[in-house]
Amino acid sequence: MANVINHPSRFLHLAISLIILIIFLIPLITFLNNNSLIFTIITKPYFSYYLTSFNNQSHQSHYPWRFSWRNTFINSLEFEGNVNYPSSSSSSNYSNDVSRAISPDFTKCGPVDLPPNAITSPYCCPTLATPFKFIDFKDYLINATYNKYKNNSSIIRVRRPAHLVDDEFIAKLEKGIAIMKSLPNDDPRNFIQQAKVHCAYCNGGYPQKHPFQDQKIDVHRSWLFFPFHRFYIYFFERILGTLIGDPSFALPYWNWDSIQGMQIPSYFTTPNSSLYHKLRHYKHMPPHLVDLNYDILSPKIRTQDQQISYNLAFMYKQMVLANTKELFMGSPYRLGDPAQPGPGSVELAPHNSIHDWLGAVDTPNHEDMGTFYTAARDPIFYAHHSNVDRLWELWTKLEGGRRDYRDDPNWLDSKFFFYDENLNLVRVKVRDCLDTKLLGYVYEEVDLPWLNVNPKPRRTKMQREAKKSSILASKPITKFPFVLDSKVSISVKRPKKLRSKEEKEQEEEVLVIEVTELQSYENVKFDVHIDDDEDMLSDENHAEFVGTFVSLPHGNHGHKSNTRFMVGISKVLENLEAEEDDHIVVTLVPMIGKGDVTIGRINIQFMSK
């Protein structure tokens, strides 16, 4: 080196050589980054690199060719363990040793896909600072600003039923929402900016990571539904608490699964309140009771006592009978998979049903609550989802504890990005949200009137068997696939009958309905019955009614959706005294969107509990 320094010409030659080498390496690095996973794998342990350009669609700009020696390479896949390189972009080519956790390419946010008659803009992308940077959730929990906000690390926020809060709490909630609405339009804490977060994640605003950029992320109808929404309202709650200067502030939960909470909390309907929202169903104001299995085309006319009875029976089926992780939480959704593989029970209803029930009747797609791209513009959205989050917490404790997906690293390491109360962009993982106490909140416990309802059959065993024999004798064999444009009854063979108590404790018998060519832009709903009288079908408070599939209008980038609908039937067959039957008769009843869905197959599977 000393020899080089003593001869300036040699130093100049060396410098020129290095410049030429860099000029040569830049396009090579770009090529590798865009066309191969090898570059990511080799360079990730040492430094981070990203190249971005001006995005006209999302109105975001970034510094090009910016190098970071910290491990913030967001445009890379994150591999763990021994890596086997895939030979193509097909997700089926990935080794089990390669992480397939979903993560949005946050810098590539683009316009979402909306129905043609949507009443809003397709631009839901958040404000994005340059240079792009974020903090991990574990650092967020311990950084100085967070501790300063909490003042006391022992503070646990208590989320209370919305119908039990006092005037002081209501005033705080109104103040917080009013401040959020008054913030500058480009402030990530602004109320509409917060609503756009839901729009982007739930309507394909973000692509998956390379090499699956053609796959758009949608957190609905999958195992991401519960953790995404838990984080979403968590940060919303943190922002509210900061804006009103109350570290103990917690969102209320709209306790629509209790008898006293089955109507919209009255303070959300006061016209001069920041909690009021114009785009709601005008006939569903208090004291009208919510219908947890709402049919937007043919609303049921029921007495209050009838509606309460039906709601409680429906809650039992959606919570207690959904006793496996896939039945309750939805199907696995990994890197490279198409979106919306299969929803869980509560997501379909009451979650989707209440969105429909609240949506306005004079907007094209029942905006705002009736569609995911505008739903979070209604302040009641957050009380609604607080209760959905509470039901997840309750479900994990039913029957002494139920298993979720925490044994699957692809679920645990799935990632999202949210802005916090201090305008920091925070990267979170599903594993970070599995204990609400560690997140600093709990739910006030109330009675669960649905817990032991266990609906009984409407007809006797003899009546059911006679009707079943008649249907089996008169119906032609159904050929799949078929368009569901009218009521249809199908004989489904059971793989095994007369299972022992031990077998039923280990595995749930599950009716699986493959839903194909679902029209994403339309409302779709169909109900499912087992061994019922198709000429006089049972209501929710009888065992023969086993579930409902509900889909709200949303975009799917020009494609029809494929998903599957699953219903646990072990307890149902016990109640129907049908455990020794070789076949069951499944009746599908299209309620909304007749002809807008195709049934690809119906069978019975066994799922581990």
TrEMBL record:
Cofactor(s) listed? Cu(2+)
Q: Which GO terms describe its molecular function?
A: catechol oxidase activity; metal ion binding
Which SUPFAM superfamilies does this one have?
Answer: Di-copper centre-containing domain
UniProt entry keywords in alphabetical sequence: Copper, Disulfide bond, Membrane, Metal-binding, Oxidoreductase, Thioether bond, Transmembrane, Transmembrane helix
Q: Which InterPro entries match?
A: Di-copper_centre_dom_sf, Hemocyanin/hexamerin, Polyphenol_oxidase, Polyphenol_oxidase_C, Polyphenol_oxidase_cen, Tyrosinase/Hemocyanin, Tyrosinase_Cu-bd
Keyword Oxidoreductase applies: yes
The cofactor note from the UniProt entry for this protein is: Binds 2 copper ions per subunit.
The record's comment on protein family reads:
Belongs to the tyrosinase family.
Q: Where is the Tyrosinase copper-binding domain?
A: 378-389
Regions crossing the membrane:
12-32
Which biological processes are named by the entry's GO terms? pigment biosynthetic process
Binding annotation for Cu cation B: H351, H355, H385
Keyword presence, Metal-binding: yes
Q: Where is this cross-link: 2'-(S-cysteinyl)-histidine (Cys-His)?
A: C202-H220
Residues recorded as binding Cu cation A, renumbered to this chain, are H198, H220, H229
Q: List the disulfide bonds.
A: C109-C125, C124-C199
Query: Which protein is depicted?
Result: Tyrosinase copper-binding domain-containing protein
